[in-house]
Amino acid sequence: MTPVLEIKGLEAGYGPLRVLHGIDLTVAEGERVGILGLNGHGKTTMLRAIVDLVDWRQGEILYDGESIMKAPTFALARRGVVLMPQGDALFPGLSVKDNLDSGAYPGGSWRKRKERRDYVCEIFPRLSERLNQVVGTLSGGERRMCSIGRGLMSEARLYLVDEPSLGLGPGIAKGICDTLMTLDLQGGALLIAEQNRPLIDGKIDRAFRMHGGELTPDTGEDGGH
Amino acid sequence: MTGVIVTTINLTAIYALVALGISLTWAGLGFLNMSAGVMYAGAAYGAWLVSTEISTNVVVVLLGGILTGIVFGALVCLTVFLPLDGKPNWEIRTITATLALSFVGVNIYQWKFGPQFKQFEPLFSWLPQFRLGDALVKSTVTGTVIATAVVVTIVLIYIGSSRIGLGVRALTQSAEGAALVGINRRTAAFAILGVSGAFVGLAAVLLGQTFFVEPNSGYVPLIKGLIVALLGGLGSLRGAVIAAFMVALCEALTLQYFGGAWVLITLFLLISIVLIIRPRGVAGVLETTRA
Question: Under DSSP, is residue B118 helix (H, G, I), strand (E, B) or coil?
């Protein structure tokens, strides 16, 4: 079966800086794969490289068997590759409802935005109370819920989740990670970067460790907390 | 005093239109459209041609100006935005390119229409004139305010409720966030510059009721539009409307109490004071989120 995501010899960086050194990774349908590692070792760069948000990248990235090395970020989103980024990249001056609806921007999803929004509000009931509130005034946890909710608004096939627990209190972080880990992937796949190992331990199918821009299978010994 | 109010409302409508176009382009695409003046003059000529060749019906002439403005917006997109998007030194290059477009446009107008002034037939003479206190509200003022209110309302409702409109609003907030949800900045650019052109086009027809149309007639509206957009806070549509009102009030009060010669001086003082107190303008977009 064709994997959802296949990365071969990926190198990427910013300006003269090479952050990733020959990354190889395959993610199959229905899989949840974790990337563990400390800050500053390339987890975020790897996820951003997949959606063409780095200065440069070399190697090969296949999505459903097709190369996406020339596809711009917006085109990947339309094809079902959704990044829930560190820092959320929400639209601070727009309401929660508008932010969520923007996640359904890709053509086919727009018509189903109301039912998708109801689905997201079911997962994060807090958001349903805040639908008309401007996102810039939400708390950090609510913003993260909104960012993840936005990612769930389209019918994505590959979810890329970058440090969902970053900057959040332990209770909220656990709640958000548990939600992500129990999502119905509907034949898609999920790749999650997280430095807080206990939050995803036992809930993912495979784990890798990112260290110094190199990806190795996780042995469960260290690399996280 | 009612005279000041009437003048203020009339000028607010015109200035807000040009400034909204400039501010929207800045917010959504990150470039300062210095060719707004040539778009203005082009739309004025377009509407004038419609009124002389097709019909003098008010709706037809207004649509002529708006549609010509939209076409000019698309031209700016094709000749400046698309070729330069993502290139190094993008901010400076777009300013240079839109300025160049301005000079080319003015020369084309000179060549095509000559330096003679063109004048519109009055579009709103069918509207009644009436007295408001001690001031006479001319039909042109009533027409200007109604036309502006109708067009701005339609556009704002469209931007506030449609899919494309959400794309435009998202782009004004975060280019990266917009790309991550599948918004194509290059397609949205046509919508943004089209709306901007429509506003400028409408302003051209409305101001054409008072001033003659000639090749350089876009420069003053461009400068006023830039002043208002900067004063309001580049990128803020609400700020553009507030600043348009402030500039219009400042001009109306100065005209009333000091005379026309003082208008630029009081305007300069107003801008200096506001930008010293609020460097980002009245409602400058500070993309803040709660800590």
Answer: strand
DSSP letter string over chain A? ---SEEEEEEEEEETTEEEEEEEEEEE-TT-EEEEE--TTSSHHHHHHHHTT-SSEEEEEEEETTEE-TT--HHHHHHTTEEEE-TT----TTSBHHHHHHHTT-SHHHHTTHHHHHHHHHHH-HHHHHTTTSBGGGS-HHHHHHHHHHHHTSS--SEEEEE-TTTT--HHHHHHHHHHHHT---TT-EEEEEES-HHHHTTTSSEEEEEETTEEEE--SSSS--
User: Does residue B205 sit within a domain?
Assistant: yes
Note the ipTM here: 0.92
Whole-number Å distance between alpha carbons of B273 and B114: 41
| Residue B290 domain-assigned (yes or no) | no
CA distance B122 to chain A (A): 41
Count of A–B CB contacts within 8 Å?
86
Q: Which residues of A touch B287 (CB under 8 A)?
A: 92-93, 136
The pLDDT value given to residue B152: 87
pLDDT along chain B (291 residues), means of 10: 84 89 88 93 95 93 96 96 90 94 95 90 87 84 91 88 91 92 93 94 91 90 90 84 92 91 91 90 61 46
Domain ranges for chain A, please list them: 1-80+156-225, 94-155
In a domain, B284, yes or no: no
Inspect the interface and report whether the beta carbons of A136 and B287 lie closer than 8 Å: yes
Does B289 fall in a domain?
no
Pick the closest to residue B26 from B196, B181, B165 (CA basis).
B196
pLDDT, residue B291, reads 46
- Residue B130's DSSP bridge partners are B137
Under an 8 A CB cutoff, do A90 and B290 touch? no
Domain hosting B268: range is 2-277
- The pLDDT of residue A3 is 92
Does A72 reach chain B within 8 Å, measured CB to CB? Answer: yes
B133 touching A (Cβ < 8 Å): no
Token representation of residue A18: 């090479």
Q: Please state which CATH class domain A1-80+156-225 belongs to.
A: alpha beta
Cβ of A117 under 8 Å from any chain B Cβ?
Answer: no
In the predicted structure, residue A65 carries a pLDDT above the cut 70: yes
Is B183–A103 a contact, with Cβ atoms under 8 angstroms apart?
A: no
Contact B184 A74 (CB under 8 A): yes
A87 touches chain B (CB under 8 A): no
Q: Is B185 on the interface with A (CB under 8 A)?
A: yes
